[in-house]
Specification:
By secondary structure, the protein is α/β, with parallel strands linked by helices. Helices cover 46% and strands 16% of the residues. It contains 14 helices and 12 strands. Strand 6 and strand 7 form a beta hairpin.
């Protein structure tokens, strides 16, 4: 057993060492700026404050059971924004340090003035990034798709679906933003509402404490409201209590289940891929889940992580909905998600499958989005071959 765990442990140690080295590099630049630019040189005080800020997200996660709610919330918010600052400092500071060397060595500029000027330039860039990213995160768009499924749906001509993935409800994404979601979705007057995973952000405690279920239960649709689990529900480990609370407010969480809705279409909800790692029973294969499904009806699949689209094509899925990727959330991370997934955001027609991946409504970590927007999906599904009903 230990032989198998050793490489994983070594990998984690290397990652942690790299992260702490990057944090130290950022802290070192900050100390130089304060010292050379303003004459503030109290290294012990500086480094204590710096590491509290740099580790605040980790502290909030590990010590959540022991911290007062207000302190936990402060640390979580601070740490969330620090994640964004960390990423963009990694991009900005090496360039600033290179410019410093060129200006002081080649151009002969004064060292103190150059440090001060470049420090302010980096701070200004960070503030612009945070401002624009915050606006993108807290001002969701409604993204509309129209697809045609060549099947009959029990006399139904059109199905209007509202979907929102990756809400990440918790300490950062809270009550006000959830109310906006409910208002926007109900305003679309959908026939069906789907929540394709990561409804909560790991811990169920804020979801309970802030009464978020009471707001979610205001979602209304004639064919119902359905959800599936995402990787963050599995990370938090509160699957059963979460599913029970959702069931109590009329939202069914489909965990490897199919639902035939009024003999018009079939909704298929998979457990998240994370179940293979976090749960001994894992999750069913898609073909196993669909063994008794009537494939002559339109088939709508919710699977949080958009893997294996070929399987959905082969098994006759008509429409698949996923999230998870956030489209990288903060550019240029979309370069990574684009390589990891065949479809990391938007729409793809593959055979008879209409695949849609959402960038999500909420955010993980910092409430910052660059290169994408928070979104709600409005999907209008047209069914071909429906017999005309006689007038009157």
């Amino acid at each position: 057993m230990y032989l198998h765990e050793t490489p994983r442990c070594r990998h984690r140690i290397r990652c942690a060492s790299a992260l702490f080295s990057i944090q130290f590099y950022i802290g070192w630049n900050g100390r130089i700026w304060l010292s050379d630019g303003f004459g503030l040189d109290h290294p012990l005080i500086y480094w204590v404050i710096f590491w509290i800020v740099a580790l605040s997200y980790l502290i909030a996660r590990l010590a959540s059971k022991y911290l007062p709610a207000s302190l936990h919330r402060l640390l979580k918010w601070t740490g969330s924004y620090w994640i964004a600052i960390l990423q963009y400092c990694v991009l900005l500071l090496p360039a600033a340090d290179l410019i410093y060397l060129l200006l002081t060595s080649a151009a002969g500029m004064d060292r103190h003035q150059t440090v001060l000027l470049l420090g302010w330039a980096v701070i200004a860039a960070l503030l612009l990034i945070l401002a624009r990213g915050s606006w993108n995160a807290w001002n969701p768009v409604i993204r509309r798709y129209e697809v045609t499924v060549p099947k009959r749906a029990g006399g139904l001509r059109t199905l209007r679906i509202a979907a929102a993935s990756d809400l990440h409800l918790g300490t950062v994404v809270g009550i006000r933003y959830l109310k906006l979601l409910v208002d926007r979705i109900n305003g679309l007057r959908p026939d069906l509402i789907l929540l394709p995973g990561d409804v909560i952000d790991d811990d169920i405690e804020p979801f309970i404490r802030y009464g978020m279920a009471d707001i979610l239960k205001e979602l209304r649709a004639p064919y119902g409201v359905y959800a599936v689990l995402g990787n963050h529900e599995y990370i938090g480990g509160h699957i059963e209590p979460f599913a029970e609370r959702m069931q109590a407010i009329g939202i069914e969480v489909l965990m490897d289940r199919t639902v035939r809705i009024e003999d018009k279409f079939v909704l298929i909800g998979r457990k998240d891929k994370a179940a293979e790692r976090f749960r001994p029973d894992g999750r069913k294969k898609l073909e196993e889940l669909m063994a008794d499904v009537d494939r002559s009806l339109p088939l709508i699949l919710m699977d949080h992580q958009p893997y294996h689209l070929d399987q959905s094509v082969a098994l006759g899925i008509d429409l698949s909905l996923s999230g998870h990727t956030h489209r990288g959330q903060m550019a240029p991370n979309h370069w990574i998600t684009r390589r990891l997934f065949e479809l990391d955001w938007g729409y793809l027609r593959k055979g008879n499958l209409h695949a849609i991946v959402s960038s999500g409504y909420g955010t993980w970590g910092p409430p910052i989005r660059l290169g994408d927007r928070s979104e709600i999906l409005e999907i209008v599904v047209h069914f071909n071959g429906v017999e005309e009903k006689p007038a009157g």
